[in-house]
Amino acid sequence: MSQKYCVLGLGIMGSRVSARLAKNDYDVVGWNRTLGPNLDDLAKTVPLASSPCEAVQDADIILMFLHDGPAVRQVLIDNGVADCIKAGSLLADMGTNTPDEARFISSNIPQTIRFVDAPVSGGPKGAENATMSIFLGSAQKDLDLAKNALGAVGRVTHMGDVGTGQAAKLANQIIVACSIAGLGEGVAYAEALGIKAENLFSAMQGGLADSEILQIMGPRIASGDFSPHGRAATHLKDLDCAFSQLEGVEEKLKATATAKNYLQKLVDGGEDLDHSAMVIAARAALAANTT
């Protein structure tokens, strides 16, 4: 008998994962806190439940793409949805939270549920193509089930016990943030010397500075289209999570602190921008310090 998937949270990532599962003929149901016109196309292939309890009650594999730890707690614990999950089901938190939050959730839901933390990286394209990197934190007894179930949506790497998936994802977010910030600063510097961003990107292809970050973020920067694929506000939240885990880390990791400052400036500006818009903050910083 085929396993039934449930996806809680149908934003940028969850909607695409749901659509991919349906496209590959998996039995899948979805739920989102709000149901708007943006989900009309998804609803043609993925049944949408009216409540999270309805969504999870028959599911064998539950994938959560919720915004943060408080949202996960609210749905699972405060709203009692964990009590609607049948014994033996796999519950995977695929959003980015802290290791402490993952361990708290694991300890405060019915122990008949097989909970894993499995945050992802790869963006909308990775979700659409099932090529996401999945950082798995799992008890050994749940490892085979988790790898098989999550393998339908991405490439799974087991990091260790519950909580280690989130730790690895936070490290990933630090690396990505610093990479985008460095790209933004390089572009700002080149532009100040009269070089167009698109020409710089073309010259860098195949060189040491070429990267997945450059291939994805470069066209956005060159076009000035910063509509959100990976939200600056979400990446800022992730860095806040990272800094909360080690005392004094914000003062010690200077490059990460700079990237976080760029993201903060974007969020403070009030627009819903992609994290590639860090180039805007880098341009402003360079202009303010150039005489």
TrEMBL record:
Q: Where is the 6-phosphogluconate dehydrogenase NADP-binding domain?
A: 5-160
Domain 3-hydroxyisobutyrate dehydrogenase-like NAD-binding, residue spans: 163-279
| Record GO terms (molecular function) | 2-hydroxy-3-oxopropionate reductase activity; NAD binding; NADP binding
**Does the keyword NAD feature in the UniProt annotation?**
yes
* Keyword S-adenosyl-L-methionine on entry: no
Any idea which UniProt keywords this protein has?
A: NAD, Oxidoreductase
Q: Under which EC number(s) is this enzyme classified?
A: 1.1.1.60
Per UniProt, the enzyme's principal EC class comes to: oxidoreductase
Pfam families to which the protein is assigned, alphabetical: NAD_binding_11, NAD_binding_2
Official protein name in the record:
2-hydroxy-3-oxopropionate reductase
Source organism (scientific name) = hydrothermal vent metagenome
